[in-house]
Specification:
mainly beta; five-stranded mixed β-sheet; 4 helices; 46 strands
């Protein structure tokens, strides 16, 4: 490999201002540690490098402050570049597990190992068995991208095929699919939606509950998923939590859009490399509201959350970690009287919403040999939400008209056995079993046509097998099958999966994937009740089966150079067995997540259809030479068919979405230890489709009535927004601390985008509610480290 070095000028970085980069290198399929891997700081003289020890660990010392890339090389593995490493004085840099792919060697020929220009970790997902429809993202990207607001969901919205059409919520629409079709996984375990104020079928989340300061690089999947991912038809967030620093103690304080937060991490035992990390956060909006800040609205979220992980290291028993997240919040909307000045109170109702979520799990990985390991996660979650609406009579007396409370306890076992048969074959066999205990109640005094009052349990079980073949140097193929069974009504599904990745020429990759996927309905839908002919309440939907989805994906990926990529992806998705009404109507469960009342319908059957198809283009310049850029464009056509046999657009049919990101870092100061960054983000999307309001009927009944015979027949105005982010990085020369300040000017032009049309009971008219408008997000982040008593507390083990 030819490496070009840039001679240090002596003024860009000072020898006194250095930091440590540490991590581990493992085989990408067997997870076995690799000894003797060389870790080299790129483009810097004098040369700085180190090697991994017998357990795959490394520590690269004396790294100058700033943005860096490292080259990871080994004689029998493909070289790789780790880009976009931000090195500051306040925190050591943890890279986690770097995964290398074994080189192909044809023993019938002379064994001459030649490495071409290295690829980057941006090309390699954390789950290396996924061949198509996946994009890994770094936490540095979450912090850097303008408009991301320290929220991984908003970061993902910059990728092709993904859109957030609501400035207030962080629900992601993936290729025309409802946010309810997204699977969230934490440390390999399925979990409920980990966002504050998520309410299935109505609100999809306002703020992230998982603290991004604890997240490690994670995967995002958008279609044709391999067999280890079940009970999903839309997209997947596969999130991991990083371990704490096992070298020294470090702390963090941050104040910004997501709240005021503190965090701490450090070693439990430096010798055994065990560690802890935690972060606590409290809503900044509630803090400012308490000191008298007037937001001009009653919608003030009050929330707090905690994230943690204890890594107990590796022993004869295996590698064990304990992790968890917990959050709570509430919103009280309403002034107590009819008021048309507050856009959230146009329905002339007072709304109370409370949400609590707790997740805890234990992760265990046991390596039986250098080619076989067993990974198991056991955990539980409690998801509780209470939503109430009361209306006002002529005498201003409150009347509760809607009462919806749900509590779901979920206990999950997720485990798989992975074995690598040399270079060519890898096999993974696993199971996922989720026990649900549901306590759900729903009462709607306005319509009195349905209710829900259920306490009970059920079990969702999955079994999967997948086989990855590496055929020669250029072809990979993954074949598998996922089966799942719902004990509640004996529903079952069997879905084959197939994907391949072929490199006909170096730096050019063609991908092909197919998946037959199944997903249960939101649990509470199964227990809606209706009145029978004898005026008795009976279960109406317990018989519902899985919704099925067939995904087909074709992609082309061109690595123009190691930091510049072009990607094209086309897809087709066909949905069948979608719940629709037994009578002719426009309703389809494919649209749940957009309209609250859709969750309350009864008398459903699995006779509906839907289909999505589209193309996506991405040109991305990864961060190098102090700048980066990302341009993505998507076209999607999303339609569904209800029981009335009419094909209509879905509310998620944002036909065209264009995203553009660009950013640059400027070094400042006499020794150029510090820097200023400028980032810009532009978003354009065609308008959402919506259902017209029947004004006459709304005036008659005093609440909003929509013309469902013309469901989603109207399209709103196009959406666009320009964000500008200005940041500053300051490193303290004498103390182990650094400061980061960002001012993110969201919608800097204050362009008026339409949120929704809704009925105003006070004025008896249809009014347009606006999106967020101009919103300045100021974030300050302090990180600091505590030097250990001895500089020799961490030493590499001697190589064999």
């Amino acid at each position: 490999t030819q490496i070009t070095y840039a001679q240090s000028t002596g003024t860009d970085e000072s020898p006194e201002m250095t930091q440590i980069i540490y991590g581990r290198v493992v085989d990408d399929l067997s997870s076995a540690p690799i000894e003797g891997v060389e870790i080299e700081l790129m483009n810097y003289l004098p040369r700085k490098s180190t090697k991994t020890d017998v357990d795959g660990y490394f520590k690269l010392e004396g790294v100058p402050l700033g943005k860096h890339r490292i080259l990871v090389t080994h004689d029998f593995f493909n070289h790789i570049i780790v880009p976009e490493i931000h090195v500051s004085s306040g925190k050591q840099v943890q890279l986690g597990d770097i995964k290398l792919e074994e080189l192909f060697a044809d023993l019938t020929e002379e064994v001459v190992v030649k490495a071409k220009v290295p690829k980057t970790t941006k090309d390699k997902p954390n789950n290396t068995m996924v061949l198509v429809g996946i994009r890994s993202f770094t936490i540095e990207e979450v912090r850097r991208y303008s408009g991301a607001r320290n929220d991984p969901s908003r970061l993902i919205a910059n990728f092709a095929g993904v859109h957030i059409g609501n400035d207030f919520e962080n629900a992601i629409v993936i290729r025309g699919n409802s946010p309810l079709n997204v699977l969230w996984q934490l440390e390999g375990m399925p979990i409920p939606n980990p966002n504050h104020f998520s309410l299935a079928g109505y609100v999809n989340g306002l703020l992230p509950m998982i603290n991004t300061n604890l997240m490690r690089n994670s995967d995002f999947l958008n279609g044709a998923f391999p067999s280890q991912y079940g009970n999903v038809t839309g997209g997947i967030f596969d999130i991991g939590l990083r371990s704490g620093n096992y070298n020294r103690y470090e702390g963090m304080f941050q104040l910004g859009y997501t709240g005021a937060e503190i965090g701490f991490e450090g070693p439990l035992s430096r010798r055994s490399k065990t560690s802890f990390i935690f972060a606590y956060r409290y809503s900044i909006y509630d803090i400012l509201n308490l000191v008298g800040v007037d937001y001009g609205t009653t919608l003030i979220p009050n929330n707090q959350d905690l994230s943690f992980k204890f890594d107990f290291g590796t022993s004869n028993f295996g590698k064990v970690s304990l992790f968890g997240i917990a959050g709570t919040g509430d919103i009280e909307i309403g002034t107590g009287q009819l008021d048309s000045t507050d856009f959230v109170n146009l329905i002339a109702r007072n709304v109370s919403f409370r949400k609590q979520l707790a997740v805890v799990g234990i992760n265990h990985q046991k390596e039986f040999s250098s080619s076989t390991y067993l990974r198991t996660t056991i955990g539980a979650s409690v998801d509780r939400e209470i939503y109430e609406e009361d209306t006002l009579t002529a005498s201003n007396q409150r009347d509760i008209v809607l009462d919806n409370s749900n509590q779901t306890v979920q206990a999950t076992l997720s485990s798989y056995l992975n074995h690598k048969f040399g270079y060519v074959h890898s096999l993974r066999i696993g199971l996922i079993s989720s026990y649900y205990r549901l306590n759900s109640m729903f009462r709607d005094d306005l319509f009195e046509t349905a209710k829900r009052d259920f306490v009970g349990n059920t079990l969702l079980s999955q079994f999967y097998i997948q086989h990855l073949s590496r055929i020669g140097r250029n072809l990979k193929m993954n074949v598998g099958v996922n089966t799942q069974h719902l004990l509640l009504n004996n529903s079952y599904g069997v879905g084959p999966r197939f994907s391949l990745s072929w490199e006909p020429f170096y730096s050019h990759r063609i991908g092909l994937g197919y998946g037959w996927h199944h997903q249960i309905q939101p649990l509470r839908v199964y227990f809606n009740q209706t009145l029978d002919d004898n005026n008795n309440w009976i279960d109406a939907n317990k018989h519902l089966k899985f919704t099925e989805a067939h995904h087909a994906v074709l992609s082309y990926d061109w690595a123009i150079v190691d930091n510049l990529r072009f990607k094209f992806e086309g897809y087709f998705q066909w949905y069948n067995k979608v719940p629709v009404t037994t009578y002719a109507s426009s309703f389809s469960a494919i649209n749940m997540g957009q309209e609250y009342e859709l969750l309350n319908l009864v008398d459903l059957e699995n006779e509906g259809f839907a289909r999505n198809f589209g193309i996506e283009l991405t040109l991305e310049k990864f961060f190098s030479n102090t700048y980066y850029g990302l341009l993505s464009a998507s076209f999607v056509d999303s339609k569904y068919q209800g029981s009335d046999q009419v094909w209509r657009y879905t509310p998620y049919n944002n036909s065209v979405v264009i995203n553009g990101l660009v950013g640059k870092v400027f070094k400042i100061g006499k020794r150029r230890y510090n820097s200023i960054s400028i980032d810009m983000n532009f978003v354009y999307a065609t308008g959402n489709y919506y259902t017209p309001i029947d004004l006459e009927a709304s005036n008659q009944f005093g609440y909003e009535v929509r013309e469902w015979s013309g469901a989603y027949a109207l399209q709103g105005r196009d959406y666009w927004r320009l964000d500008l982010k200005i940041g500053a990085y300051f490193n303290n020369r004498k103390k182990n601390l650094s400061h980061r300040v960002f001012l993110d000017l969201i919608n800097v032009t204050n362009h008026e985008n339409i949120l929704v049309q809704q009925y105003n009971a006070a004025t008896q008219s249809i009014e347009e509610a606006q999106q967020l408008g101009f919103f300045p997000d100021l974030t300050y982040r302090l990180t600091f480290g505590i030097k250990p008593k001895s500089t020799a507390v961490w030493k590499n083990k001697k190589s064999k």
